[in-house]
Design goal:
homodimer, 3-stranded antiparallel sheet, globular
């Protein structure tokens, strides 16, 4: 019920405008409209449903609630350790923004708002269910790690997806403040 | 953590395209695009922040997360009783859709999906904080009930606001199935 504040910092911003890979590459700043990141292939008011939305027929046009992908460095560290690899790059997960200092980042409630110091505001649409795509990229660097291990160890550690609530820019080094929603639990307690 | 299903029914659909009142009027069916109800003044990709979004400067252009207003007949009955009035009309609250049989409707978690039998899908964006507007309409019919009593008794009983995730129609008599999100609690338990 309480409105709790959390503060973190942006370590990197990344984007990818190519259709043939999910890998994002670091850049200086992102420009965000209400449809997403101008230089990223996930921009758009709509998207096509896929295996992440099993309640829709594949290919159905639906609202794009996966405009921006965010990860936390602490959770990437956890995944790296669990995979037993020497390093892990946010871009291999297709992340657009990596942050530090927000505990249990992937568990932030749906509806949490992320206020960036540049003025942009993102609305958390929930944890990002991991698929094998990042595992395939990881395997290119660490051939001993099967691609299907990533979804197993990254569950609830693979960050969140967000919509843009207020347009603007986001840059490396920005601070980010998280405002939790006041929605009570369902069903109500007691 | 579990994905629980709930089923209800649409009692009425309502809309209002006038700027000078919040009152909605019953109609046969609503047509919904990804920007909201075509015949309702709350349609649009964007809205201006007001007192409901105290974390934005008033007038800031933000994503319209309040496209559709839904209420439950059971909660309207609670409000009616609490106000001590003989009847209460969903349109006085500016509701677009009234439903039955979904317990604790206003507490449905943000991110819950409402699947209507016509194919339209709405995404719950949270409970609707009550203001005095409906209280003023109620007072026209029941002069003894001060307008400011409505926000007091209607807190967490005034329904939810939603975005359109899948476009389509919604009609009187449709069934509605609610799918709760799988997002775990934050912070994690234990």
């Amino acid at each position: 019920m309480t409105t709790k504040e959390l503060k973190g910092q942006v370590i990197a911003v990344l984007a990818n405008d190519r259709e043939d890979t999910l890998e994002t590459l670091p850049t200086d700043r992102l420009i965000l409209t209400l449809e997403g990141i101008t230089t990223d292939r996930h921009r758009g008011q709509t998207m096509r449903a896929n295996s992440r939305q099993p309640f829709y027929e594949r290919g159905t046009t639906i609202l794009n609630t996966r405009q921006v992908s965010l990860v936390s460095m602490e959770e990437l560290g956890f995944i790296q350790k669990a995979l037993g690899i020497d390093y892990l790059v946010a871009g291999w997960l297709g992340a657009n923004i990596s942050v530090v200092n927000i505990p249990h980042f992937s568990l932030l409630p749906i509806g949490a708002r992320l206020f960036f110091s540049s003025g942009t505001v993102l609305l958390n649409m929930g944890y990002n269910p991991p698929c094998t795509g990042p595992g395939e990229i990881i395997q290119r660097y660490f051939p001993d790690v099967p691609a299907n291990r990533f979804p197993k160890v990254a569950h609830l550690k693979r960050g969140i997806v967000a919509m843009v609530e207020r347009a603007g820019e986001i840059a490396r080094g920005d601070t980010v403040r998280v405002l939790l929603p006041t929605q009570p639990p369902y069903p109500p307690e007691g």
